[in-house]
């Protein structure tokens, strides 16, 4: 998710997926802020980007089984039944799962980006080589992002994570998240960080980011300009 590195933010509803993932939204925030890419089936299942893992060698047989299935009035259940015969547990196990306590410690929704950076610096000195490498990589990912975009991303993912499970809140639904992301995208796309097309960020550091300006990006548009979903 490299959008922060071009002055934008992770969109297409990923904050909604991240809110439902383990860690109370921390994993989604970690991926969104650092730009970490999901590179294994186990991690894709862990975060909720997938529901089943089928080895590529079995995809042809799976396709034939779906095409020849006798569908009822509940096709979703029918497909689930077919998939059950082909799905496997991916190996190795999810790296995100192993690192979950550290991810929560660094990227819980109540932490600012600056606080996440300070926490990561502590883990960067860990005697556990895996944890230290993870923290170092996360810090490097954050360093590539536009400070304004990083703060915007943290606020967005935090808001959506906090709304998860509250059916009365508009951000608990994908349509609500997409509507908000449309507002953010319109305003982000005209900021210099994106228009310039190079990492000469304005503001240049996290400390220089005006959070009131970040919050203004989330404000409703004129009624006729809002995304209709």
Automatic annotation (TrEMBL):
InterPro entries: ClpP/crotonase-like_dom_sf, ECH_dom, HIBYL-CoA-H. Residues 1-218 form the Enoyl-CoA hydratase/isomerase domain. The keyword Metal-binding does not apply. It catalyses: 3-hydroxy-2-methylpropanoyl-CoA + H2O = 3-hydroxy-2-methylpropanoate + CoA + H(+). Pathway: Amino-acid degradation; L-valine degradation. Hydrolyzes 3-hydroxyisobutyryl-CoA (HIBYL-CoA), a saline catabolite. Has high activity toward isobutyryl-CoA. Could be an isobutyryl-CoA dehydrogenase that functions in valine catabolism. This is 3-hydroxyisobutyryl-CoA hydrolase.
């Amino acid at each position: 998710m490299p959008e922060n590195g071009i002055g934008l933010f992770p969109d297409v509803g990923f904050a909604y997926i991240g809110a439902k993932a383990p860690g109370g939204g921390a994993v989604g925030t970690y991926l969104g802020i650092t730009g970490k890419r999901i590179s294994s089936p186990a991690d894709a299942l862990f975060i909720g980007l997938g529901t089943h893992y089928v080895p590529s060698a079995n995809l042809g047989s799976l396709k034939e089984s779906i095409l020849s299935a006798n569908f009822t009035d509940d096709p979703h259940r029918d497909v689930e039944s077919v998939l059950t015969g082909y799905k496997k547990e991916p190996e190795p196990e999810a790296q995100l799962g192993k690192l979950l306590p550290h991810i929560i410690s660094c990227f819980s929704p109540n932490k600012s980006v600056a606080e996440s950076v300070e926490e990561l610096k502590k883990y960067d000195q860990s005697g556990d080589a895996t944890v230290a490498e993870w923290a170092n990589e996360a810090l490097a990912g954050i360093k590539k992002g536009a400070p304004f975009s990083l703060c915007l991303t943290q606020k967005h993912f935090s808001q959506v994570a906090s709304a998860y499970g509250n059916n009365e809140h508009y951000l608990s639904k994908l349509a609500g998240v997409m509507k908000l992301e449309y507002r953010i995208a319109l305003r982000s796309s005209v900021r210099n960080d994106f228009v310039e097309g190079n990492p000469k960020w304005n503001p240049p550091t996290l400390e220089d980011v005006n959070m009131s300006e970040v919050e203004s990006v989330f404000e409703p548009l004129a009624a006729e300009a809002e995304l209709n979903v």
